[in-house]
Amino acid sequence: MALASILVVDADAVSRHRTADALRALGHRVRVSGDASSALATAQRSRPDLMLCDLALPDVDGIDLLGDVRRDDRLRSVRVLVTSSQGVSEEVMLAMESGADDFIGKPIDSLELSARISACLRRPANTTAAPEIRAGGILIDSLSHRVTVDRKALSLAPREYQLLQFLISNQDRVFSRKQLLMHVWNRDASVGPRTVDVHIRRLRSLLEPFGYARYVQTVRGSGYRFSLED
Question: Is 95 inside any structural domain?
Answer without folding.
Answer: yes
